[in-house]
UniProtKB/TrEMBL annotation:
This is Aminopeptidase N-like N-terminal domain-containing protein. PANTHER family: PROTEASE M1 ZINC METALLOPROTEASE, PUROMYCIN-SENSITIVE AMINOPEPTIDASE-RELATED. Residues 44-216 form the Aminopeptidase N-like N-terminal domain. One of its GO terms (molecular function) is metalloaminopeptidase activity. The lineage of its organism: Bacteria, Bacteria division WOR-3. It comes from candidate division WOR-3 bacterium. InterPro entries: Aminopeptidase_N-like_N, Aminopeptidase_N-like_N_sf, Peptidase_M1_aminopeptidases. GO terms for biological process: peptide catabolic process.
Length: 355
């Protein structure tokens, strides 16, 4: 079996242009993947600002969406559910709006031609109402400071806490500015630009410079995180590794997370370099059953709820493999990617030291 595995892996595509094509933002390329998807506009950036009152389980927010019109239109249709909307602006002018089911329809006061660049801002407040079903329901606020307030969007949950074009065919860069009660740490996609830990409320500003889908835009906040840092070397470049685990789990989980360095380095050599070298590779504890691997932040479920911590050790490594391989879906090798996952499980078991 191992001989067959090595032969198959030796034929795995090593073309780094596959990875680069996934990172570059291109609506035309995305449209080929989603032939049944018609987008009226292309979002280029989200600027998300949240003041989260965790004890009250409420928030006030401002979402700023930069976009380019892909067809002439006299209105914008955003995906957005719940909350009380205070105002909607387009290019700093208040606009009429209406709501229908899970859509927010914004008047543009006249037809805007194809190619027009617009900035839409939505001001709102209220209590998040996650979608039913648990996983991927949106934003979950837990008033217990020892627990975690977190977002989980896959596949369609983003619209339950910020207005957006909730479609994986449209990727955008992102800023996340989150204000929380003092003592909480906030972790999100990208790099931490600033952290103001003064006063009764702390503010964290994260910037994601790689275009990502809305279902990957997340944050987690807790007053009970323990941070462990490490560094991997990929193609001669240092890659920061961060692991935010809950304090009660840190003694058991942290030693296993020290294997991540060699896993990232190994899979970067086996396939292609980790695609977020300019940002980070990170884990953050959140009460979810899994995580998505197309960004630089991987949520993992509380170790105490996994039963045996050994399951955590190997499942995280497998997430790394699948996360890197998911980029191959942007090419015609996606069939091979799906077929080889069972073989990758064997590679991961070996990297984890499991028989």
């Amino acid at each position: 079996m191992y001989a067959v595995l090595l032969i198959l892996l030796s034929g795995w595509p090593r073309d780094h242009s596959i990875e680069q094509s996934a990172l570059n933002h291109s609506y035309a390329a995305d449209a080929q993947l989603f032939e049944d998807t018609a987008l009226a506009y292309d979002v280029t950036n989200y600027r998300l600002a949240f003041d989260v009152e965790i004890p009250a389980e409420t928030l006030s927010a401002e979402t700023e969406i930069s976009m380019t019109m892909l067809e002439a239109a006299d209105s914008l249709t955003l995906d957005f559910s719940g909350f009380t909307i205070e105002d909607v602006e387009v290019d700093d002018k208040s606009r009429a709006f209406s709501r229908q089911d899970s859509f927010l329809i914004v008047s543009l006061d006249g037809i805007q031609p194809e190619g027009t660049n617009l900035t839409c801002k939505v001001y709102y407040h209220g209590k998040p109402q996650p979608a039913s079903g648990g996983f991927g329901g949106g934003l979950y606020i837990d008033p217990d400071p020892d627990s975690v307030t977190y977002a989980c969007n896959a596949p369609w949950g983003a619209k339950h806490w910020f207005p957006c074009q909730d479609n994986p065919a449209d990727k955008a860069t992102m800023e996340m500015i989150v204000t929380v009660p003092e003592g909480y740490e906030v972790i999100s996609n990208g790099k931490l630009d600033s952290a103001d830990r003064s006063g009764s409320h702390w503010t964290f500003h994260w910037i994601e410079n790689h275009p990502i889908a809305t279902y990957l835009i997340v944050f987690a906040a807790s007053g009970n995180y323990a941070l462990t840092e490490d560094t991997a070397i990929i193609d001669g470049q240092p890659l920061p590794l961060y692991h935010w685990v809950l304090v009660p789990d840190s003694t058991d989980v942290t030693p296993r997370l020290m294997r991540v360095k060699e896993m990232v380095e190994y899979f970067s050599e086996l396939f292609y370099p980790y695609p977020f070298l300019d940002q980070k590779y990170a884990h953050v504890a959140a009460p979810v059953g899994g995580g998505d691997g197309e960004s630089d932040l991987y949520p993992y479920r509380y170790a105490s709820k996994l039963g045996r911590l050994g399951r955590y050790r190997c499942s995280r490594a497998f997430t790394l493999v699948v996360g890197q391989c998911d980029y191959l879906r942007t090419s015609k090798t996606h069939v091979a990617e799906r077929g080889i996952r069972h073989l990758l499980r064997g590679v991961v078991d070996g990297a984890c030291g499991r028989p």
